[in-house]
């Protein structure tokens, strides 16, 4: 279990779209906790990469409508991932984000 014996909310749902939680008796240094940290880091890094790609794409004067649409969809996916992390972290702090 995470700190204080409380299950850790994860930034993704279960297969049936319910909140997912990590329950580990190894604390924050357990393999499962480190895997969850790695997943969150991956989502954050993906968001940074998509933001950089969006900047580069939108700076080009010959950017097509299709490219702008793809960038917008990619940014939304990245934002969804980061917001899931925020929601999970907010729940740990006792302050879920609405």
In terms of DSSP E residues, the strand content is 5-15%
Tell the overall outline: elongated
pLDDT < 50 runs, ≥5 residues: none
Number of separate strands = 2
Q: Main sheet?
A: 2 strands, antiparallel
Helix coverage percent: 55-70%
**Roughly how many Å apart are the termini?**
25 Å
Strand arrangement within the widest β-sheet reads: 1-2
**Rounded average pLDDT:** 85
List the secondary-structure elements in sequence, H or E.
Answer: EEHH
Number of helices: 2
Structural category is: mainly alpha
| Radius of gyration over C-alpha positions, nearest whole angstrom | 17 Å
What can you tell me about this protein's structure?
The model has no long low-confidence stretch (mean pLDDT 85). This protein has a two-stranded antiparallel ribbon. It starts with 7 loop residues before the first strand and ends in a 6-residue tail after the last helix. The chain has helices spanning 31-59, 65-92, and strands at 8-13, 19-22. Helix 1 (31-59) runs antiparallel to helix 2. By secondary structure, the protein is mainly alpha-helical. The protein is elongated, with a radius of gyration of 17 Å.
């Amino acid at each position: 279990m995470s700190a204080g014996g409380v299950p850790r909310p994860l930034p993704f749902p279960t297969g049936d779209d319910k909140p997912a939680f990590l329950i580990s008796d190894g604390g924050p240094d357990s393999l499962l906790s480190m895997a969850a940290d790695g997943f969150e880091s991956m989502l954050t890094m993906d968001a940074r990469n998509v933001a950089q790609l969006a900047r580069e794409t939108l700076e080009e004067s010959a950017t097509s409508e299709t490219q702008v649409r793809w960038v917008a969809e990619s940014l939304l996916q990245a934002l969804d991932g980061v917001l899931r992390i925020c929601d999970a972290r907010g729940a740990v702090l006792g302050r879920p984000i609405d």
